[in-house]
Design goal:
The protein has 298 residues and is α/β, with parallel strands linked by helices. It has three domains: 79 residues, Orthogonal Bundle (Arc Repressor Mutant, subunit A), CATH 1.10.10.10; 100 residues, Periplasmic binding protein-like II (D-Maltodextrin-Binding Protein, domain 2, 3-Layer(aba) Sandwich); 95 residues, 3-Layer(aba) Sandwich (D-Maltodextrin-Binding Protein, domain 2), CATH 3.40.190.10. The chain has nine helices and 14 strands. Helix 5 links the parallel strand 3 and strand 4.
Length: 298
């Protein structure tokens, strides 16, 4: 096996902490991955990995060699990409995006991208959970909000505006709040983070400062669909990305309130690993996605 291929396989095993997961992401038999690492250890004359039934971890030599591997792999991929920048991008791109953005914005627009780039195929994952790029073989993910990932390249894509809305039935019953000071007399549909379970406070920007207060609510949900459905049912006020309720606003099923006291917009970021940063297909997809989201969401 080619030496750089051995390096790539070893690096993937380290990142996945598993021969099986590495084999799955590489599309190789597990036995071939294991044999490649053994061959590499034989060439180097050093043990690179501690192997147990549950997990694979690097030895001291393995950790040092892994860091060197990343640099060598990057150098090779940079050299290979020198003449690709003007070439037609080809190959399969595995991406993962938040649920409603994927369903409402990206999926309906994909024919445009695929027509423009006939050499690229898309594996589209649509989920609101935090995807591990390396372990799950994903090339890039779109994240909305604060980032917790380390060791990944982050490409800012734009910001997602949030608005305050309520149903006409709710406003007829409880009145229209004009400022956040009036929220003590109102109800909200509470949103609990699916990952942490923490209930989000009501937020707004005042004189350039982010302010927040809890607003009473009798219903707590953990999905955007339920959040909007409860608001439509008149159960309280919500703060929501504007694109999420665009058609409900156009149909007068929901009404924006406190337009001058919106929450801070949420950052949108495309994340990918260092080994993907020179991928031509990833570059063209990122450019297309940024343009699409700015057009559709801003």
């Amino acid at each position: 096996m080619d030496r750089i291929d051995l390096f790539r396989i070893f690096a993937r095993v380290v990142e996945c902490s598993s021969f099986t997961r590495a084999a799955d992401t590489l599309g190789m038999p597990r036995s071939s991955v294991s044999a490649a690492v053994l061959e590499l250890e034989g060439r180097l004359g050093a043990r690179l990995l501690h192997r147990t039934t549950r997990k694979v971890s690097t030895t001291q030599d393995g950790a040092a060699f892994y860091e060197r591997c990343l640099g060598l792999i990057g150098d090779v991929e940079e050299a290979e990409s020198l003449f690709r920048q003007t070439a037609t991008p080809t190959g399969t791109l595995r991406i993962d995006v938040p649920g409603r953005i994927g369903r409402l914005i990206i999926a309906p627009s994909l024919p445009e991208f695929l027509d423009a780039h006939p050499g690229i195929d898309i594996h589209l994952g649509v989920t609101d959970r935090a995807v591990n790029l390396v372990e799950e073989g994903v090339d890039c993910v779109l994240r909305v909000g604060p980032l917790t990932d380390s060791g990944l390249i982050a490409r800012p894509i734009g910001e997602l505006p949030l608005i305050n809305v309520a149903s006409p039935a709710y406003l007829e019953r409880h009145g229209v709040p004009e400022t956040p000071d009036e929220l003590s007399a109102h109800w909200a549909v509470n949103y609990a983070s699916p990952s942490s379970g923490r209930v989000e406070a009501w937020e707004w920007i005042e004189d350039g400062v982010l302010r927040c207060i809890p607003v009473r609510g009798r219903v707590t949900v953990n999905s955007a669909e339920a959040y909007i459905a409860c608001c439509l049912a008149g159960l309280g006020l919500i703060q929501i990305p504007a694109y999420d309720v665009k058609r409900h606003l156009e149909a007068s099923e929901l009404v924006e309130v406190m337009a001058g006291q919106r929450a801070a917009p949420m950052r949108m970021t495309l994340l990918y690993s260092h080994r993907q940063h020179l991928s031509r297909r990833l570059q063209v997809f990122g450019d297309w996605l940024e343009k699409l989201l700015k057009h559709e969401l801003l």
